[in-house]
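Hi,

Apologies if this is the wrong queue. I'm a grad student, and the batch job for DUF3854 domain-containing protein from Paenibacillus gansuensis produced an output file that my downstream script rejects. I'm not sure whether the problem is my script or the file. Here is the sequence I used:
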Amino acid sequence: MKLRRTKHAGWYEVMTACPICGHKGWCRINHEQTIVHCMRVPSDDYFDSVIGRQFRHYLDPNAVPQTKVEIEVNKAVEKKPDHHLNRVYRALIKELPLSPQHYEHLLNDRNFDPDVIRLREYRSMPTQERYKIAKSVINRLSDQSDLLGVPGFFCQEGRYGPYWTMSGSTGLMVPFRSITNEITGWQIRVDEPPLELAMKGAIKGEILEELERDESGKRRARCQLQIQDKKLLVDLTEKDKKVCNSKSGQFVFSIELKQGQRYWWWSSGSKDNGASIGGPLPVHFALPHPCLKYWQVGQTADTIMDCSEVWVTEGPIKADKAADGLVKPVFGIPGAGAFSLLLQPLKELGCKHVVFAYDADVVKTPEVEMALEQCVEFFARETDMAISLAMWDISQGKGLDDLLDNNLIPKISTLLE
Ligand SMILES: [Zn+2]
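Support response: The file is valid. Your script probably expects a header line. Output copied below for reference.
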């Protein structure tokens, strides 16, 4: 298990698979490896923090084999305030390109208009010569030290001394806007998501290295597996799930090589002079694209558009699409359990009615149902806002963006008057 120190002594961010949800990053674990504060799998035991609602899960100290712990050396610095991040990220927008490949994706796979792609200011993280872009950004600002504490940037040691460059995988960069049109962070939709092992039952394993793709273009990886006391090296192929049952037909284990997370925060918390994106974690606020031309930095969105009703969905691009399709303001949050991050901005916007619109395939899962229940209880306690849930059949589209692209609108049911 790879861990990263947090601001709270004795607590670490889990950088490899979280023992509860299986995803990388965001979830916390204590030093003794007995308690996990998972950000994605709800439980009745929780608390709210600057990174969202943290769900407490207790690990059985006897059942859980203590995995070897690696703690990242942390030479990161505190994240700078939003107005500073906005200044640096707006300089970055002027220097970063949008690659033809990402432009095509937005145009053809996401059904964006060319005008909208330009106004939303999507960009591409290049593979090479990132230091040149960092240098150009510094030239637009006043000082080298302006990049200090800005998530994504970090210092690298070179032959002629340290220099600034940028972290992150190659991919489409999606800006996160605050309710005052400050750009306070980015997510990268990575071109090549890292591979992960999905395992159930009596098996342990890790990916050692990615191999060349097979003839049909599927990704492959060499993996070290442990089944009971036996260790073995196996080459696995993506989406080729192996299930092992005993002679009597009982389930023993299953394993599958899968593509992992597509969206990652642009962060540099594990790097020299870098900064972590968390605390407070940005949430993305999308207005319909025609508003963007008139929206000054520092101007609260409710002076541009009626914000008495605000919609909420998962993910920034989906929020951008939904704002245009619905002609409403839409928040994009990093997960269904992250609703507590919305409280302050919704109050500032003078919102009276919040409509949650999660993907049709997740809205009926126990995790999302529990998150919604807690969300209703939270808003009832903290605000006098009404809460509704938008629903539709999956055959009409998976996400809110797909539904709207098909010229359909969701049914709305009231959860809290
Ligand atoms: Zn987790």
